[in-house]
Specification:
It contains eleven helices and no strands. It is mainly alpha-helical.
Amino acid sequence: MPHAYHPTVEALWVSVVLYLIALGYLHEWLRIAWLAPDGVKGWRVWSFLLGLLLIWVGVGSPLSLLDHDLLTVHMVQHLLLMTLAPPLILLGTPLKLLPQRPLQRLVELIARRVLWGPIRELGRILLHPAIGWIGATAVLVVWHIPGVLALGLRSEVWHGIEQASFLVTGLLFWRPVVEPSRNDVKWPESSILLYLFFATLPCDILSGFLVFCDRVVYPVYLSSPRRFDLTALEDQQCAGALMWTCVTVVYLIAGAFVTARLLSSQAPQEYAIRQLDTQAIALPKSDVQRIRAV
């Protein structure tokens, strides 16, 4: 399909940016690992670097050059940027990796004095789990409208906005799932299971439509070169099936981890209650009531 810019230029600067981010992260991690008594665990480093690698595969590798020819490759990009890379990056960025240098602390102090109120309020709104869910769903739906998708394929600016919107909303969506303790809004952690379940519905509807539709939904791919002997309709069905499978598997894995986290946090509380009940047998009734009240 003809387009007005060269994807190789975009892939080059994306690769450079990701490389610089990786170097900065490793530098900060080495500082924490060697100087702090409680350094960041090594698996977090690998998680963060793997997340960056998946972003590079989506928008900086030779694979990204095929998104104008195959809807399946375009779908792979979206899944990497929105479903796979964000949770890995969030797992790899614990709070203790935040920069603590004097100059940065001075900038933070000035920002806190002058702009802290408005910035904090805006951040609290943007980081609300409902905003993450609505934003991710809206981005998914809007960018899969045929006319909007064609605009992203033909325009360098809109193509960059599209990729950035998938990554940013992916990070906002996965934040309450990966690190619920960072949320200013304290939702019951069990609600994250419903959060994930309802997030699968728009993906299932879209992917099911692409798989079972008997016509090409995106005419822009009718004029694309045929890759791997796939017709435009077969390419569309493959993209829908890929989205359906990937989202289902990833969300099931995330739900399993959330469930395990809930059970592990409830076990110490239940043990303490049983210990209290056991000790209460030998105590006067008034003492038992006083302990339970505490």
